Each structure stands twice: as structure tokens, then as C-alpha cells.
Amino acid sequence: MLASITTVLPPEITGVIDTLSPPLLERMEEIRVRVNRPLELIIDGNPYFPAYIVTATDAIHILNKISKHSIYALEEELKQGYITITGGHRVGLAGKVITEQGKVKAIRDVSSFNIRIAKQKIGVATPLMPYLYEKGRWLSTMVIGPPQTGKTTLLRDLARIMSSGCEEKRVASCKVGIVDERSEIAGCVHGIPQHDLGQRVDVLDSCPKAEGMMMMIRSMSPDVIVVDEIGRMEDSEAVMEAVNAGVGLLMSVHAFSFDELKSRPSLREILSYRAVKRFVELTRSNGPGSIKRIVNEMGEEIYREEGVRR
Q1: Whole-angstrom Cα distance, residue 250 to residue 155?
Q2: Which domains are delineated in the chain?
Q3: Boundaries of each AAA+ ATPase domain copy (predicted)?
Q4: Exposed site from 214, 255, 281, 282, fewest CB < 10 Å?
């Protein structure tokens, strides 16, 4: 998992990471590199500071590695503030922002890197199947949770199950279209997914969600569309278009609860139309991906962490 990350890190930082025990490495979520400040590792959501001060030379090394010594080739990615590397890991960047006519043109003098470690957890979504699959079809579902609760990991595994099917549970495979605006679900590099998403997946990488959903419906005729972190008004309008076209939806949203969603103007139409049939609330109580509860389109609780309510 870390091999594709250590190839972009300076030997000094790799050496520090190599001193960690295997259990800590397994639970590491982020590597944060800031020039002239201590190296920071996020493990189980908590910061850990090894005895190493990052140098400007370290930053140049990382930038050269992730850009393959051609910053200009990554100009579009730099506008977005992150680069996806082999393995599906995302490297966030911060530094001096260059603007042109009020819009971000590039980031120069990069002084901070945030390497988010992409972890594919095969089977993590399997327990959800009885609640999200009904009468031969997948119900449109919204995964709810604050940052770092495993929303994208869950979306990724659900997409894999949908695409592959599950003979044991009599779940047929279906055509899945992923609109991956931030290259996090599929983790594409040169258009090729770095994660196992099954055989029947098509990906629009680095494509704005609202436009991508419409493109996917017109060009690839998916049974289900998967998108990460909806929230803008145009996202909601595209969701309603997809619903009216008879396409199932699997999406995530930043929120602490289903109740919080009700106050979002951009999601009001989706909720009032009852276009989404299942809402899965996530928590970190037992680590990322812990399911707090599931509610239906009426707001009725059908599953809670302590057990199932029939």
C-alpha cells in the first residue's frame, strides 16, 4: 500500500516512516509535510510528530517526483490543488497561489503537502446490502458523515459490489458510472482506475459532478451513478435529472446527520421529492466507516449501531 507513496518521498522521510510498527503503518491515514516544520503523521485521526524537521530540499524532491520533473505537465492539476499518484493516493498542495482575472492559475512555491493514503477495504460494504438492495435493484443512497469517516471507502466498495454482483446473495451485476471529480473514488492515473471496482465500471475522471452525471447518462447508459461529496445547487439539479431518467444514485455528502441535511437549501428538493431512499450515517466511534444508523426516505430509522429495528 505504501510502496507507491514512498517512491515520491525523500529517503530521510521514508526512513522515519519505516521506523513505525506494522500496526501503526496500517492505521496511518495522512502524511503531512511542511517546510521548516515537523513531519506530521495522522494515525487513527490523531497527530503524531516524529523527530524530523522538513527541509526545502524535501519539498523540491516530492514536487519533482509527483510531477515527474515536469511541473508544466501538471498545470491543470495544480489549479485544483492536488495531484493523484499511482495507487490512488491524493497529494494536496499549499503554497503561493497565482491568480489570473480572479481565478486560480497555479500554485507556486509549494511549502505544504498532504498525502492522503487511499485504502481499499474489500467487503466493508457487504453488511449494507440487505438495506440498500431491494426487489432486484439498488435503492438510491446517500452516505452521510463528517470528514475522515470513511465515506469514499464505503462508496468505492459499494461500487465494486454493484459492478460485480454477488451470486451468494442473488444480487445481479449492473452497469456503474463513476463521476470522480476529485479522482478519489477510482483513483485514476492516466484514466485507469487504481482500485478494484469490478468489471462493469466506467469512470469520468476529474470531471465536474453536475456535467459528468449528464454526460454519463447520455453516453454510457449506467444503471447506477456514483458521485462523491455533492452539495452545490447544480449537483442537486443533476441528481434530480438522473432520478427522472430512471438511473439509480449512490452519493456522499459532508454532514453530521440526516437531520442536518434538512437545513441545506441545495438538498431541499432532493429530500422533499424523496428521490433518495436510504441515508447511511457514518461515525468514527469504531474507526472510519462505522455505521451509526440507516434511515429511509421517510426519515424512519431501519438500522442502528446497537442492532436492527424491524
Answers
A1: 7
A2: 3-116 (3.30.450.90), 126-308 (3.40.50.300)
A3: 137-285
A4: 214
Q: 148: burial class by Cβ within 10 Å (0-12, 13-18, 19+)? A: middle
Write out the DSSP string of 21-72. -HHHHHHEEEEEEETTSB-EEEETTEEE--S-B--HHHHHHHHHHHTTT-GG
CA distance 275 to 197: 25
Mind listing the pLDDT tens digit of every residue in the chain (310 residues)?
688 899 999 999 999 999 999 999 999 999 999 999 999 999 988 999 999 999 999 999 998 898 876 666 667 677 778 888 888 888 999 988 777 777 767 677 889 999 999 888 899 999 999 999 999 999 999 999 988 888 999 999 999 999 999 988 889 999 999 999 888 899 888 888 989 999 999 999 989 999 999 999 999 999 999 999 898 899 999 999 999 999 999 999 999 999 998 888 888 888 888 989 999 999 877 766 789 999 999 999 999 874 433 2
The one-letter amino acid code at 212 reads G
